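W.,

You were right to be curious about this one. When I first looked at the sequence I had no strong expectations either way, so I just let the prediction run and decided to look at it fresh. Below is the sequence, 376 residues in total, followed by the output.
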Amino acid sequence: MAEPEPEPKPQPAPDPKPEVGQRQVDLQPAQAQPAPVQQAPVIHQPMPQPVQPQPAPPDPEAGLLPEQKERLRLARIAEQVYREDPSGSPAEYNGLYDKYLAHYKEEAGYVQKNLETGESLEWDDGYKALQEKAPKISDTMLRKLEREDIKREMSRDLNQLKRETAVLKNQLHRQATTPRVNKTLKDYQKSNFEASVPDDIKKAILEDKKAFKENNPFEYDAISRTLTATNTLISQFEKVNNGLEEYSSAKHGRLADRIETLGQAHKKHAKAKDGKTFVTRSEFAKLTPAQKATCYTWEADDVKKAFIKSSRATISKKLKDIGDKVSKYNGSVERPAPSKEVMPTPKTATPRTAAPSVSESTREPAKGSLSSMLLD
């Protein structure tokens, strides 16, 4: 008996094709597209335009003859003389330059026109009439202007020589005066230290300046600042008073104010001298010669002595303030209570001591409090 033939395996159905007008859908999972990166807009800076050089103004005397330019130079001098002294100068000097320049321009144009036509100017009535309109100035005036030109040139040279001489004199003065002023300032600083600082502190500083500064920082700072301020002002005063610096309110205003303040304080108890009344240096400078005969004021040495006196008083007050603050602080600091022994407990049978307080275990808070008090 013949075996039956095997049934054919079913073929998989083909994927249906999308109809016309329909969109084919991808069955694979869609991948996320990265978000577009926004780029910063490019700002185009305008290119700097090259600076165009300004054209030079045209020369009004271009094309004129040498003798015409010479006459115009004298006309300029005439106008300058008239501006300086209108009532004492000839009226012809007023506006002479412009009159000559206009005439020369008109004459040049007339001559150029005749050259193009080939006509002669010798018998030209128009040219003769043009010459009649030329500015009138006598030969005497021309000679005066020439002498005035020479005189002004000599005056310019003389002024230049005076300026150069003044600069040379100033240099020689500085060379001769600077060493003397420096020595005076050095001596003054020594005198200021000796007169302003108390003897005990002065002795300690001279023996060991570094040790005094470390052990007494507040006292040392107060003394140093006061002496430096005084020495700086006196240095300015000496240089201005000896011609090494020119007074300027911007640079020396504090010096002037300090001298005036000290002078006003001295004025309250100043005594008459030879029947004259004391006034400050700034007040004395404003008096008339007759008023100055009845008054007197400080000399340079008096000013320097007044600064030393003020420096001594300032240092004394600052040292007293520091001492008062230290005494006040020491009186306000509480003494740490003695530690109490704790009775031993049955468990440990070991004596225990109470934990130290913050002020007892460290001195840092006390030190900071003292610094803030003294530096107020």
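Here's what jumped out at me. The first strand starts at residue 277 and ends at 278. And, maybe more interesting for your project: Confidence is low (pLDDT under 50) at residues 20-29, 347-376.

Coffee later to discuss?

I.
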